[in-house]
């Protein structure tokens, strides 16, 4: 941290607000909100503070900090949400829909139009949605057209032009689909009352709206205005038809928002789902995919999703149900969210995490939908990856004269130290990219220390890997690459034939000295140009397999060295040494542990022997 930045941190305000972390080029790394800006921002730079790897990397890049003071925490929440959407900082949770779903827009104009749109603009209009189910959206628009007589034209209905008679009525007026505001036949106040009723319907409040229309119908009938009463009757029938199509999910007819969450840590993606329930009926579902989730808890992700929704919402329910509680995470603070709901609703809105009963079932349903959407996203991403085949993969398939492209490649390498500590690795490349979650290491059992035998080691690894693959039904590679020449290739082919899987996929060997590529049954090696993209792909695969094998070997050797020191203690055997290292994590931690801590793991007698051994004099650490 620079001296300038340190001075800046000392003079930050203590009021609530929003802060921006910037790198040395002025780009925004992260946007956050705080109850106390000075305390929150300084916490990032505290020595010894436990942080995730993602935040640790970000802190190293911070060159400057900018803050914006707000009057309240609620204002900070809304401002943070807007800045994140505008700036898309790298280290914030990235919330986005998988595609642009349609909304219903109530246009900001003198006589507002109501129409479908996929473009949300900051023009003062109100947007309801998004609607992930287009059928439901069309049902809603049909109900609006049937119940209300709204204009559909794009005419400028300013007061001056209407009074000057600049417009004429159209067909919609003559077939009673519009009441003619363009020629002054409908007042602005009367039209706005209709728009208020439309917004009631869009917010799911059909019960109150139906009751209001029935009162108007009865009043019209009492005044002998039977034409108006018949029109209102038809509106009520259309409204009741639409209401019957909505799914009832609770019998208490309450307004509530139900938030679900599912996170796939391995794939680095999550999904938040929202079920909007109005008067006990499901009126819509919304979902948002969550990216850049590394180092974030489920509670943090849930809070980000919920805050993102309510910072720009038009309606606030009587109750909020969550899958996980953000208050369970000590760094999270839901007070701004609770205060926002209280201010907008005019009273306290309970935020609950139900564990049993009907409400818990609704939350589980939301989480199940989130899981389905994550799986759908993964399938779509796999399809995109399959469709985006690198040129190196295509050229490798052509060079090897393969019928199918080698999209999935296994690479096997053997490593040992002068015939000792023999290990093997198998790495997987998918579309030319390492698939590290599918890497595997093997401790070679068939070769004795001191007698290196790469061919025998290769046969063991191939047998173990593809026996298991045959039992589990794959996934089979499109190509197997073994590090070595004709001998390693021959050993591999022999085992594949024994397993009766030879021919399911091509296999080649690559010799390092001249980068020769050997194929079964071909006495002459294949040479690719040193700048050939497919050769670089094979080299990357081989180097990655070697790196992974050597890393595994070093890890084993280090554990063995540490265990050997503990084995110098009289009365400590192999099993006890392994237990100590596993429980304490390192030899240094074992040395520093007191008798009581050691006794809890290996018993008081052995604990005393360990303590006495290191008190007498520690051997040099390997």
From TrEMBL:
Span of domain UvrC family homology region profile: 266-496
GO process annotations (BP): nucleotide-excision repair; SOS response
Domain of life: Bacteria
Predominant subcellular localization, coarse grouping: cytoplasm
Xref: PROSITE patterns: GIY_YIG (PS50164), UVR (PS50151), UVRC (PS50165)
Molecular function in Gene Ontology: DNA binding; excinuclease ABC activity
InterPro entries: GIY-YIG_endonuc, GIY-YIG_endonuc_sf, GIY-YIG_UvrC_Cho, RuvA_2-like, UVR_dom, UVR_dom_sf, UvrABC_protein_C, UvrC
Annotated ranges, domain UVR: 207-242
Family in the record: Belongs to the UvrC family.
NCBIfam families according to UniProt: PRK00558.1-5 (NF001824), uvrC (TIGR00194)
Described purpose of this protein according to its UniProt entry: The UvrABC repair system catalyzes the recognition and processing of DNA lesions. UvrC both incises the 5' and 3' sides of the lesion. The N-terminal half is responsible for the 3' incision and the C-terminal half is responsible for the 5' incision.
Protein name as catalogued: UvrABC system protein C
Source species: Longimonas halophila
Gene assigned in the entry: uvrC
